[in-house]
What we know:
Structural class: alpha+beta
Order of helices and strands: EEEHHEEHEEHEEEH
Number of strands: 10
Low-confidence stretches: none
Helix content: 25-40%
Distance between the termini: 29 Å
Mean pLDDT: 92
Shape: globular
Amino acid sequence: VEAKDTIKYVVAYEIATGNRRVFYNNECHFGYRNSIFKNELKNQYIVMAVGFSLSKTMTITTNYSALSSKLSERNITTPTPMQIAECIAEIRSSKLPDPKVLGSAGSFFKNPIVTYSHLEMLKESYPAIVFYPAGEHYKLAAGWLIEQCGWKGRSLGRVGVYDKQALVLFNKGGCNGHEVINIANAIEADVESKFGVKLEREAIII
């Protein structure tokens, strides 16, 4: 599920004036890993608080492939919210480095969105390509694309691509911002060359 579906309002601090403003859900222009704070109002506000409107009626969503596989492994057919939470925590810890052990920027790239015709063209050459419906378009698994380009587990200078999740770039020790940009540029170039897909960075470069 997505946070945008349960966020009622966002309280933000305007840097220029010091004023606080409440943005209601429809004013936030939420999209896939996106919002007004990353576009029209970029660098103008600092988010201070978020108000969620949660349902008292339990609704279980298990169509995420990794989650449904994990539930099957445990022979759980009618999961409780706690069982889902435990499975998701286990999935996340298996794919993402422990920040207490390894410094990283988390998932560095967004999953790219493509048209149906682009997806069909890719499926002809790459039948195993990982994708998910996204409205009228399709979302490709950026980690899979990066892995197919041979970057999973590789390094460039003092920056590495995590061996359990190719979306994650991590600091091998003493790296600087320029080194992070260099490996990101190299990965993006390889993915675009191989698949004709331009990756978009999730991390904001300051």
